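I'd like us to work through together how a protein chain folds, taking it slowly. To get us started, please write out a protein record for me. Go ahead whenever you are ready, and we will take it from there:
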Amino acid sequence: MAMIIEAFASDLCNLISEIRDKRVPVLAMEHSYVDELETSILRIRNFFVAHTDYMKGNEAVAAFVRAVKDAMYHASDALSLLLLKIQEREQSTGCCTGFPNYGDIMFRHGIAVLGRQMNLLLREHATFGLAERGLPGRRSRLDVDRIYHTQSMALPVPDMVRDHQMKQESEKIVKHIVMNRRPANDVTVVAIVGAPGIGKTVLANIIFNSVIVQRQFDAKIWLNVTRNCSKLDLLQSANSTFRAVDERFSDKSRLASELHQYFQNKKLMLVMDDVWSAETWNDLLRHPLSSCAPGSCVIATTRNKNVAAMMQASHIHRVHKLKPDVSWSLLKKQVSL
């Protein structure tokens, strides 16, 4: 359960990071609401991480988990809409402006309410006799990503409709990865494409931690690419998976060469999360990782199908929200079990 919540939290923090990049004085109110929501998200994530062992197999907390995930889905929709509104203002005026109409005021209020609802959900922990661990101040985006990706474990799949869909989708992608045959030194590229916050990172994480992937691959790397990540940052992050890296060391050629040497003849699974440009793979990582063993695979999550095409993905998987009739059908099947 904790890893599911962590994956959602990571997606939401990605959205929040993008919104923060738009920070200008006239949007101070919007950012204060987003800040409040982020604090709530991190508190919930920390709570689940602190009590992972207790919650495993505990039916009493199932409703609590569903409520938390439902709130996070709503938060994802609200943040995505806020980002879209900001981008629309930028495109139409060349700069960010406030939201003057009544509907926008209610929208801002809705984000604030979501933050408060998440805080109220945390109070439910008293029902289970659990204590919330305090959040030691605001964490940076880098800290959030580091926590998320260093706590790697098999993802449980709760009996919820959305997770049922995720499990089915992950199995299809894993099957493609295992069955796909590429020429030697040609890494398989799989792209997961979808709107912000729809669950691309969650799906990639399920695949990354699947039993089949654990058995089939000699090494695994997870890289948070993002729009503002530099080439040096990515090379350092990739190298840090197998050795200590001094952040002051900035020789990109040397870092690339060490990647090439270390992963030579190793079957590698690389996840590149939130890719904005195909150059990250085509011009930066493809050559250093060309020494990998046949069967190596790159999974790229991206919002842009053109990025997937330019990366020459052999399989493009589009993540969609469940249609109401499909959700209802799956829910009825689960209730009858």
Q: What stands out?
A: The two ends are 21 Å apart (CA to CA).
